[in-house]
Specification:
The structure is a homodimer of 192-residue chains. Chain A has seven helices and five strands. Chain A has helices at residues 3-28, 34-45, 53-60, 64-76, 98-107, 110-116, 122-142; strands at 80-84, 92-96, 157-159, 165-167, 172-174. In chain A, the strands form two sheets. In chain A, strands 3-4-5 form a three-stranded antiparallel beta sheet, with no helix packed on it. In chain A, strands 1-2 form a two-stranded antiparallel sheet. Chain A starts with a helix and ends in an 18-residue tail after the last strand. The first copy, chain A, binds a DNA duplex (30 and 30 nucleotides) through α4.
Chain lengths: 192, 192
DNA sequence: TAAAATAGTATCGAGTCGATACTATTTGAG
DNA sequence: CTCAAATAGTATCGACTCGATACTATTTTA
């Protein structure tokens, strides 16, 4: 009688494949691959501790060699910018270029999703979201993968005042906008 | 305040990518790619109207040329069998070979998923499943894609007696086991 | 201070994927 | 009834992913 989790797996898999196929269609017109859009979405969301090739590789679940090539392509197309870290001169920092920003903006397929979920009760969606989120965290912690969440769900995040936060891991102050970016070192608070 | 559908999109996307990465790890040990496992899973579930290259291409969301090459690889490895259709001699029929069956059996990653969802309430999962299923059907019908569902959710399926069913589209009798396979011509009944 | 660890790049080979061109059948319009 | 159009599939090309391996350049640590 534990069939539902498996059904959920199949649904997520199928939906994921459809999204990927749709993505391929959309980005293909720009001569890109799905993974390039994934990378740009990540760079758009990554905080200043997480905008490196290594971090991206972990997020995508590929090796650093593979990510290096994809970054080369994105660089060639002028969609990202790379610059060296001032402190640790081994690490390269990444950010979207203005052109990359612009292209990402044009590619957001969220409206299709909106219409696909229009007739589903808000409550059901809310439940779906919690189930998926919990599963995601479980699955990630299970096989030692990073969770890449935002600050307000992280155990290291401390609120100092109305507008300032503090990261206990990096021992640095965080601005409000920064707390809404995803972080490589994110550790989720226990669910309740 | 319609943020939840987009959050759901992001979660499905992320989960899908993780599943894909995990899949790559597992099938990579056999020298295969994720798409090969997807294909084998499909062939394992496809009914006799749907076990063709064209049908598989539609399921995977790739062109027939692409699928043709993946099938060649699966054939080379002895994981599938191809045979010509008796009636229409243009079409090729596909099935898993005994070796393919065996490999598929060994690769099912459902147990990981089971443990990842162990602590989530059955009710929440049930709601998640319905939300995902509805979204899937919507999304598919929206962009004209096939739904690839099973008979008992299809408008063409008529129950004749306790054990026999009838497909109004193909005008053929269906055995009980057959009604649990996925079909290329599936049209979902309206949800309620 | 020298060895180990870490971040990244370069290169190779197998495979995906779309595009295009092709063959072989079946369908259909006149 | 025939010939053109449609359909199912294969072949080939080029750009790209992806893992593996080997490499360089820094930083850490013993």
């Amino acid at each position: 009688m534990l069939k539902n989790p498996v059904v959920m797996l199949q649904l997520v898999e199928r939906l994921g494949n459809l999204i990927r196929a749709e993505m391929r269609r959309v980005v293909g017109q720009e001569g890109l691959q799905p993974v390039h859009l994934e990378a740009m979405l990540f760079l758009n969301q990554a905080n200043r501790f997480s905008n490196t090739p290594q971090s991206l590789a972990e997020f995508l679940g590929v090796t650093k060699g593979t990510v290096s090539q994809s970054l080369m392509l994105l660089d060639r197309r002028g969609l990202i910018e790379r610059y060296q870290d001032e402190v640790d001169r081994r690490v390269v920092r990444l950010r979207l270029s203005p052109l990359g920003d612009q292209m990402l903006e044009a590619m957001q397929p969220a409206s299709l999703w909106q219409s696909a979920t229009r007739n589903i009760s808000a409550n059901r969606i809310r439940n779906g979201v919690s189930a998926l989120r919990e599963t995601l965290y479980m699955l990630q912690s299970y096989n030692g993968a990073r969770t890449f969440g935002v600050c307000n769900t992280c155990i290291y995040c401390q609120r100092k005042s109305q507008r300032t936060h503090h990261c206990a891991l990096f021992a640095e102050r965080l601005s409000g906008p920064e707390t809404r970016l995803v972080c490589r070192e994110h550790v989720p608070k226990a669910a309740n």
